[in-house]
Amino acid sequence: MLVQATETAETVLTSGWFLDHAYIIPLIPAVAFFLIIFFGKRMPMKGSEFGIASMVGALVFSGGAAYQWIQRVNGVSEEAFVEPVIKSWTWWQNGGFSFGIGQHIDGLSLTILVVVAFISTLVQIYSTEYLHGDRRYTHFFASLTLFSAGMLNMVVAENMIQLILGWEIMGLCSFMLIGHWWEDGANSRAALKAFFTTRTGDIGLLVGTSVLFFAANDWTQKNLGVSGFSIRGLSAWALSGTAGQAAITVGAVALFIACIGKSGQFPLHTWLPDAMAGPTPVSSLLHSSTMVVAGVFLVARVYPVFFEGMNILGTNVNFIVVIGGVTIVIAAALAFVQTDIKKVLAYSTVSQLGYMMMGLGAGAWLPAVFHIFTHAFFKACLFLAAGSISHSASHHSFDMKKDMGGLRKFMPITFTTWIISTLALCGVFPFSGFFSKDEIIDNVGYSGYSLFMVIGLVGAFLTAAYMTRATYLTFFGSPRGAAAGEHHDEGHGHDAHDSHDAHDAHGHDAHDAHDSHGHDDHASHGPRESGPLITIPLIILATLAIGSGLLNAVPFGENWENLKKWVEPRAEVVNVTGVKEPSGSHGESRFVLTAPSGVVAAEEGGHHKSDCGKKAPESGVCYAPQLNHAPFKWSKAALSLGIVFAGMIISWLLCVQLYTRKNKALVGLTQRNKVLGAGYAFLANKYYLDHLYEKVIVRSIAYPISRGAYWINQNVLDGIVNGAGIGSRKIAGWVYRNVDQRVVDGAVNGAGNAAQGAGGALQPVQSGKVNQYGALLFGAAAIGALVLVIINT
Amino acid sequence: MEVLSDHNWVLTVGTFLPLVGVLIMLFIPKTDEVLSKSVAIATAAATLAVGIFTLIQFNYDHADKMQFAADAEWISVIKSSYLIGIDGISLPLYFLSMVITLLVMIYSWNHVPSPGNAKAFFILMLVLQTGMAGTFIARDLILFFVFFELVLLPMYFMIGVWGGENRQYASLKFFLYTMFGSALMLVAFLALFFKTGAESFSIPYLIENGAGIAKNTQIWIFAGMFVGFAVKVPMFPFHTWLPDAHTQAPTQGSVILAAILLKLGTYGFVRIAIPILPAAAKEWAPWIGLLAVIGIIYGALGCLAQTDMKRLIAFSSVAHMGYVMLGISTLTDFGLNAAMFGMVAHGLITGMLFFIAGSVKERYHTLEIKRLSGMLVQMPKLGWILGFSAMASLGLPGLAGFWGEFPAILSAYQPAEGLPVETFRTYMVIAAIGTVFAAAYLLWLYQRTAFGEPTAEFAAGHGHDEDIHDVNKFEWIAWTPLLIAIVVFGVYPQLMFKVLDPAVGVTLKAFGG
Q1: Domain residues of chain B, as ranges?
Q2: Rounded Cα–Cα distance for residues A397 and B35 (Å)
């Protein structure tokens, strides 16, 4: 067993088996993936047992490691930097450097590990019921398991390359899962779109990683004995004061472009709503704890790079905060024009990711990470609730307007969990979203990003409003369509009302889920509550949607700020001694950190402050910048709560007028009023971004541009080749006819042979002629060689 | 250069053993196809056994040194000798050629393309194997040239006799085009010989003395080699023979062509052109890099325009070899390692893709993308293997393709000293954009052919049910090693980097690497 040798000047950091072996966590589902692929179909539960067992295993390991990490943190003083548990084995080498694969375990990675393993477990259990009887049930579990493996690997990653590995595996799995019902062209197109859009962002990942590597590698090798891919190395390098501003800015911007693609930030968010084509458990997993969180995680992971590269806290605007802020509002606005319940949730996710990004861009690192944590539970719950509705009540439809309504009476558990999660999402006290989202808004304002604080509040209003609308349409009013027990033919919705969104709302999922069940065992039922395999995960998630906020309940005082204590890396200057032992063949890198004796920590208003991130440490290194923490004030919380309630009430009243009373002044307003109509069309067409991407950019490359290039290939480049062939053939023919036959031989009978040469390009030529050409070429070669030698002597 | 010469018979045997098999086969009557095939496969297997022995005996702590080296008198009149050896750069390719040949032969067991004549077909493959292996062990320019050319003839006949409808045109174009390049290459070799005092054609000798040639002369000599190798790679704009050759070639020909033959060109750059003529290489590098990135984007656009699956895969080679050449053009150890890894990865992956294309053609009698759909419905295993290979080809981390592609992009950020940094950084971004294009054409291909429902003409009950079957036994045997290798090298790239890296360092000595 490998034991991390760690000691500091004051205290010995404790470790433990789980913490030292956290690299095993992604390996468990990775192995399970192969088991499912090779043996899944022969197993009694068709492979799902491997998937579920592996996720439970990953959860146990993550939990154990998290527990040991907490002990490790508790064992040292409040101010001391708690060094992450890092391991590295040689993975590849190049140019004499060896690059590792291993683990980088600290509070951040453990938080995400636990969430991912936990949600994945519940989603897999849920899926056993939801996809029961699906024709590719085993494949589904294989992909789902590999998906989690990718995310877990990304989270434990010791370096950027390992992170890219997990990142891309998720891309692959999202392709497989979104296109799970690939018989329908719409699904496979959505899968392609998801992969392709994120891949476009990944240009930034490749470029950014390269830029940062070359900028940092010398420094990290010299000072830390690690490569310029290492997360620890990059963090320390970024804060060392020796990083060139150009390189770090370019690197940070490039990496952030990748995050825009992966985390569905404006303007690359368009793939996320289409990704709803996948089965609902996939949406739930994708939108809560994996895939889309990857971009946010990357920013949080190598935060010092972004902190320095984007000059966070240095100015009151930067690239990240702008993208985050814009995303919050534009996505929330789109959520209002959706009829598909999953699409409302999808845009809600985009919007919430905007909050996280905005928080990170404004120095609110901990609130952003906390929001990843709480959001995962309530968003997973909302998606699974939507799935529960379509599974048991709306005949596989996700259309709120046509096939839902009044479901609260039929589905009490689904309804209750939905309401709890909605309240959490809206940020109502004391549900979990309140603690995280409010902290983001609060800290963004506190750090001087006032404009973005306002955007955050506007976003909160919009969130409350669109969620109220969705809740109303789904659970209140009178049952409609499938929810009322009606049956309609497949392919409904093409010509029905709401034509603006017809091609989306017609619902690939609805259609396909229908197909996928082969036999329709729900046809005879009206709406009813789902079975326990669906409701129990819902209940668990809803419980956490209430309770998870207490992990860092700032309003209740410092004793409640556990996440801050356990997760936020402490911005301390630490000495690095005894470095030089880079990831060798013995499979362990060790480093020892001590607090430098010369540095006296400055106390400021009771809060410990260091200069990390402000100026370069004179001796030693920093691994995290010093950030601000806004003091909690009930007055500010009251304001945002007031805004949320206002959003809910206004939305509720409008919904009643629109959908139940059918108020003539409101219904059809967008058709009567040109300005409103234009605005509506603008939203319904998703700001025309899809038009731009699909109809303009992609189409032009796929058709005219590629065909033009190919035309050049065939007619210009190949034309030259063929021309040369024909030309030399004609010359040869001429020489043969005029020189060889007439002059040398003078014979007659050769003319007939050569005559066939005209016009036929290079085609049917006997192989014998090849020799002639060969001889000709070699003759030319010999002459050429001679000429070259003569010229150059 | 230091040399280790234990077991110096190993390479000679490994290279010429296939010819022994050919000799035996000459005495087998043409009608006894099973015997012909068996002898050929046994020969290839024995050759591979020698290859495995080489792999075991290879001293990995000295991957930078020439091993199993031998030096015998050959054509003393022109001072050319039988100088052979193998180091970390050539070992993977040398071994890969043996593996591919054997797998292709196994695949051919029940896939001899029309017009049949298994005996001749297998003999050609064995001759091809000798040529390929010989090219990778030769350390004398004339010896290299002979092997390099030896490869041409069997491939010419394979395309010209067993090829598709337009085989005559394609085979002749292939032959003449490469011959044209070879001629210029020979000019360059001769010039090199005379300019270094007409002493020797031995590569180590030329490496020592080549740098002394005046820079302008170097540039001209490099130009000759450049055309010779660039045609083979093939680099834009010398690539137009490739789509035709690939499209018309029988599956076996395509696989060997993609997996090994293209690498002869890139290998020539790494082994000969760059170390012997460092000053010229520096002058040429930005231009090579430019053509490489043009090739990446242009090849991808060519792919997007294709309506034929096999032609699409052929064009993707242009793009992929662009990454290899970009790595080489940086003249850094980073770039060269990436290029070498990329060569092997491309050999495995594109070889695999051509295998699949062959099997699809056999089942549907067409490769027209429009007519193919829903392969996953009719042949789930083949469909998934196509998906896997497409993912590998587009450079998914965890599979072999990534380790040729990403490090090549990485290396372009910081080319060798004296090269224009800004230019190469631009190349880096373009190459990174190329990865998106790769995803586009491969996934689009996959979406169109594998997803959806089968088209009406091939739907069940329309007379094609007998032909359309899933992966068969011989295909499994031929493919499994490739699939495993793609995963193994993807998961643990150090297996190959460890062998390549030291040898690459030696190659770049002239650049202070």
Answers
A1: 3-511
A2: 63
